[in-house]
Amino acid sequence: MKKEKMWHLRWEELQPWLAGVLVVLSSAWFADSMRDGFEAIRECMNIPGWVSGLLYLVILIIAIAWLYHTRKALFQPRTRYLEEHKKPEPHPYLVLFLSDLYLGKNDIQEGIPNWLTLTNNIDDDLRTMEKLKDERRDQQWRWEMPLRGLRHHAKVLKQVVIVCSDKSIEQVHWFYKILRRYPNFQGFDVMILLNDSSGTVQLTPCTDQQQKTGGWDFEQFNNLATAMRELFKIFQNKKIPEEQIMIDFTGGQKVTSVVAVAITFNRDSSAQYVSTNAPWDVVSYDVEYGSSDTGGVGI
């Protein structure tokens, strides 16, 4: 199974290069046909052959100089279509990286810190968290930002896909129960992207029962990147347009943030980040390769 997936992945990676080879070959064929036409015209006009050779050399020198002058703009990642500090439109499909909670001091019960009392109103609870943080800076809860990210899309959400670490996978059922206590978070499916022992990626419903295995190593870039590509295939098979997919990279670690943003390169999907400081805005990035003059905000 793993060998088949490896060959399948290799084929996917080779396809753009094969397409590039065809582009180069067809460009050469087209250039040859244009040169033949130009040479036919030159012969009809009795222009010496060295003139066309000199013209080709001048064009080559100009092209090399132009390429050298603009080399720094090659493959520069930039964001597109998004204005600074502009909140993204709500998306029906949200991919969420979930960090684990530190349980060393035994001050967390069912995922909720002892210093925090949750109600059934998400807006009231988030205001309470803001107030507690103003009073004491050590009153921090890792799952506050995922809740903020979810709230932004709640009115249109159809599905949330949670990507867990090998530690947070054992806590995700707590996160699920916290979500379901709020009326705002009732109308959509909650799924987990599992790292199956057979080497396959599985999308399974999240429940209030503890999941022991299936988490991802948030430090392994290649594995996470493969998982995200497989997830996009699942979305594609379900005929879900990429522009309806948002990836939240607030949780997790630095590597997960890079993967979350990189997977949106030249896709119609976007990535979002929830600011950890007031006013806790949701900021979205739509990343593409472009030049320094394509506009947008570089990241």
For the report, how would you describe the main beta sheet?
7 strands, mixed
Overall average pLDDT: 80
Q: Uncertain segments of ≥5 residues (pLDDT<50)?
A: 75-85, 289-299
**Strand order of the biggest β-sheet:** 7-6-5-2-8-9-10
Intertermini distance: 38 Å
Order of helices and strands: HHEEEEHHEHEEHEHEEE
Q: How much helicity do the residues have? A: 40-55%
Tally of DSSP helical segments: 7
Number of strands: 11
Q: Which strand-content bin applies to the residues?
A: 15-25%
Specify Rg, calculated over alpha carbons.
26 Å
Instruction: Classify the secondary structure makeup into a structural class.
Output: alpha/beta
Shape: elongated
